[in-house]
Amino acid sequence: MKHLITFIFVASLLVLGFIALNYIWHWVPIDYTGIVKVFISVLVVIFIGTGLAMVFSAGYSRKKHQQDVGKKD
């Protein structure tokens, strides 16, 4: 699952980067109205969601037999 989330994050990052550069340099003529704005908005939500999923996944992950350091019983 981690690999899928990472793949989706990187793919959305690359697509958003291409869209941003295309907006600046006009490589491919795209009409940035209507459905394209919705598509870009969905990509941004996917990008943010997968980024947050990776951050929280890393924050809650622990090595398999890791002991709590400094915890006194």
Main beta-sheet annotation: none
What's the average pLDDT? 88
Structural class: mainly alpha
* Strand count: 0
Strand content: under 5%
The helix/strand series, from N terminus to C terminus, equals: HH
Radius of gyration over C-alpha positions, nearest whole angstrom = 19 Å
| Quaternary state of the chains | single chain
How do you describe this structure in short?
By secondary structure, the chain is an all-alpha fold.
Q: What's the SSE blueprint?
A:
Elements: H1 2-25, H2 35-60
Helix pairs in contact: 1-2
Features:
single chain; 73 residues; mainly alpha; 68% helix; 0% strand
Walk me through the structure.
This protein is mainly alpha-helical. It contains two helices and no strands. The protein has helices at 2-25, 35-60. Helix 1 (2-25) packs antiparallel against helix 2. The protein is rod-shaped. 3% of the residues are buried.
